[in-house]
Amino acid sequence: MNNAVEISPATAFGLTEEGVLLVDVREPEEFAEASFDVRNLMLVPFSQFEERYHEIPADRQVIIACHVGERSLMATYFLMNHGYGQVVNMQHGIVGWAEKGFPVKGELKRKSGGCCCGSSSGKHAGNHSSGCC
Amino acid sequence: MKEVKILGTGCAKCNQLADAVKAVIAAENIDASIEKVDDIQKIMTYNVLSTPALVVNGEVRCKGRVPDRAELKDFLTR
């Protein structure tokens, strides 16, 4: 498997300014608290990713992002495995994005990540006390 | 010898699965090697989004949960 292309929040911001689509894979409750304030944004929660990834356009460049960059890296590889050739992962997630001063809607309160454990059921996704992903 | 892999990025549930697998292997005297895989790129070679996942001889047997002892025994001896 090829390595995923990973970009910094600064590079991601520049691309979003050019109109590149940013796909946020955080859960709805995380999104409700704070979200990327960019022109082209799409929410595909990690807990629903296997069922909904096909909603992401395969014919254009997309940036995948999450809270700290781990769920999004898994999602990036998942898309690569499904033939997506123009997908990149944004390192450090919305936490790194906000730390660099890039635009966020809402207030980012959580500093630890969401969880990839058991996410296919959705029962454990967004369990922020577990400290994984 | 069975080749058992626990896929997970190191959270509590991943460790629970690893401990449970080790316990069943010991109790049932199963000839097996166990490897914990926490590298995301390696995890994604199995195309598993939901962790922890259990891989036995290269086949993903379950993902996103910690099976009970009876189910684990089945996965590890089948």
Description:
The complex is a heterodimer of chains A (133) and B (78). Chain A has one domain: Rhodanese-like domain (Oxidized Rhodanese, domain 1), CATH 3.40.250.10. Chain A contains five helices and seven strands; from the N terminus they run βαβαββαβαβαβ. The longest helix of chain A is centred in the middle third of the chain and has 11 residues. Chain A is globular. Chain B has one domain: Glutaredoxin, CATH 3.40.30. The longest helix of chain B has 16 residues. The model of chain B has no long low-confidence stretch (mean pLDDT 95).
Give a brief outline of the structure:
The complex is a heterodimer of chains A (133) and B (78). By secondary structure, chain A is α/β, with parallel strands linked by helices. Chain A is built from five helices and seven strands, in the order βαβαββαβαβαβ.
Low-confidence parts of chain B? none
Q: Give the largest chain-chain interface (CB within 8 Å).
A: A-B, 25 and 20 residues
List the uncertain runs of chain A: 119-133
| CATH class value of chain A | Alpha Beta
If strands are numbered along the chain, what order do they take across the biggest sheet of chain A? Answer: 1-6-5-2-4
Summing up helix and strand content along with how strands pair, one would put the structural category of chain B as alpha+beta
CATH class of chain B: Alpha Beta
The run of helices and strands of chain B is EHEHEEH
Total DSSP E strands of chain A: 7
CATH topology of chain A: Oxidized Rhodanese, domain 1
User: Into how many domains do the coordinates of chain A divide?
Assistant: 1
CATH architecture annotation of chain A: 3-Layer(aba) Sandwich
C-alpha Rg of chain B, in Å?
Answer: 11 Å
